[in-house]
Design brief:
The chain has 306 residues and is mostly helical. The chain has 15 helices and no strands. Helix 2 runs parallel beside helix 8 and helix 2 packs parallel to helix 14. The N terminus is likely disordered.
């Protein structure tokens, strides 16, 4: 009789590979918008509870990123922009990525529910589910509107931060949700305009691949026309002061000007690249100004008082 012994191959992954699996750049924006939602919510929050909430949101965002990379490993391998990610490079096995993501997801949701409150935990669980199942597994491969509907997942963190403080929701966090929701299509479609060949090679039905550049440019302008007044809405409705209002008007006008340039562009993708880069700055400045406008230094310390 012969005896065959199976030997498990050691993992090639290092700490950096697992950090990359969590999509740190996307995660940083998620955490920042959640911080703003937490900081501008009415009332006071114990600093330990506030830190715990942000940590759980960070881990939950990382879980969503890891599960996205696990499921999309075939797409990532076919695209030049993503071929260097840990799974296509063979640094992390798909099963390792799935186990890592599921563990982080369970830890983040349960911890948020136990340490903060149930509503915040439910919203975090829904965010992870929506990004992984609704967007990654279903919409991304089936419809050119994938990024429109799927953008809801990335727009929820301010609501989670608000709920962590208040245990409820209100009009203001819903406005923050809507700003990110309508920001997502022009941001990602600007990228997809000059990465269309990548998406086509991977079989992802992004709007430029399915409908062409001209239609994509038209929809970028449409969503930017909705986004600009939405960005001003917190000031117009009295939820923010003049610092935020001035910043929202100026950056919204810049977004519109760039979207118009994208709409008129016929050769090359210079305007698309500029819009994509500025859209990141736009969202960061909008939320940073909201934080500055609503929270003086003393007010910020008082907000996080025990």
């Amino acid at each position: 009789m012969s005896l065959t012994v199976a030997h498990a191959e050691p993992s090639l992954a290092g700490v950096g590979d697992y950090i990359e699996l969590m999509k740190p750049r996307v995660m940083s924006l998620v955490v920042f918008t959640a911080l703003v939602g937490l900081a501008v919510a009415p009332g006071h929050v114990n600093p330990v509870i506030g830190f715990a909430a942000l940590l759980c949101i960070t881990v939950g965002a990382g879980a969503a990123g890891a599960l996205n990379m696990w499921y999309d490993a075939d797409i990532d391998a076919a695209m030049a922009r993503t071929a260097g990610r840990p799974i296509p490079r063979g640094r992390i096995k798909p099963g390792e990525a799935a186990g890592f993501g599921l563990t982080l997801a369970a830890f983040s949701v349960v911890s948020l529910g136990l340490l903060v409150n149930v509503l915040a935990a439910v919203l975090l669980a829904f965010t992870i589910f929506f990004y992984v199942v609704i967007y990654t597994m279903w919409l991304k491969r089936s419809t050119p509107q994938n990024i429109v509907i799927g953008g809801a997942a990335g727009a929820l963190p301010p609501m989670i931060g608000w709920a962590a403080v208040t245990g409820s929701l209100a009009i203001e966090p819903i406005l923050l949700f809507l700003i990110i929701f309508f920001w997502t299509p022009p941001h990602f479609w600007a990228l997809s305009l000059y990465r269309a060949e990548d998406y086509a090679r991977a079989g992802v039905p992004m709007l430029p691949v399915v409908a062409g550049d001209r239609e994509t440019r038209r929809w970028i302008l449409f969503y930017t026309l909705v986004l600009a007044p939405l960005g001003v809405a917190p000031w117009a409705l009295g939820y923010a002061g003049p610092i935020y209002g001035a910043a929202a008007l100026a950056t919204g006008a810049a977004m519109l000007a760039l979207a118009l340039r994208v709409r008129r562009e016929r050769v090359g993708h210079t305007a698309s690249k500029q819009l994509f880069a500025f859209s990141i700055l736009y969202l960061f400045l909008l939320f940073a100004m909201l934080l500055i406008d609503r929270m003086s230094l003393g007010g910020l310390f008082a907000h996080f008082a025990a």
